[in-house]
Amino acid sequence: MDFKEKLKARAEKEGISLTPKQLGQFELFYKMLIETNKSMNLTAITDEDEVIEKHFIDSLSCRRVVDMSQIRTCIDVGTGAGFPGIPLKIVYPEIDFVLVDSLNKRVKFLKDVKEALGLEGLEALHGRAEDLARDKSLRAAFDLCVSRAVANLSVLSEYCVPFVRTNGYFVSYKGKKGLEEISNAQNCMNVLGCKIEKVDDFRLEEDEAERLLIRIKKCKGTPKLYPRKAGTPSKNPL
User: How far is Cα 132 from Cα 137, in angstroms, rounded to an integer?
Assistant: First the structure.
């Protein structure tokens, strides 16, 4: 099978029906990812089947814990090469997305992807979450925040929750170590005005690694103190 046939079949197993246009967008994204990766460190995963499973299908797993039909705005914090934001945008084109990364080279790549794939309603921003979360146009502006970034849940929540409107959600994509992080995150949840509402423990069919999706609901406004200045959350987690 070629790339599009593989992806179509794999997505259907997850209950996701992809149009010919969407399959073409995923294929072009894959080609750009592999080509750009030759000169820039975007991903260690380059095998076609592994990219489909560990990047594309994994990114779309958010739908397991969130009714995406109820989402109008989403921000992806620490998006890197565009995961989970780009796959989610392709499948849910009606949602407006903002992708945030602290490395300008990656943001330029994301802007090139946006242009090549014709993704309207998508913005890629260069900056640190600690700084951008103080921008009035971004703070408490999103129905959903997603992140596959590698950081402790308490640290990541301090970065992400300020972007979410009250009664909106933050979904953290984690490996099995996330369970331990959950047990240490209660103080963080209290301080930020949110609560862990659902934890989905699952494995993808083609990959035995255990995965967690942690859905956090924002119950009230985040105190103005948070996020603290750059570097502080990771050095001194809540």
Answer: 9
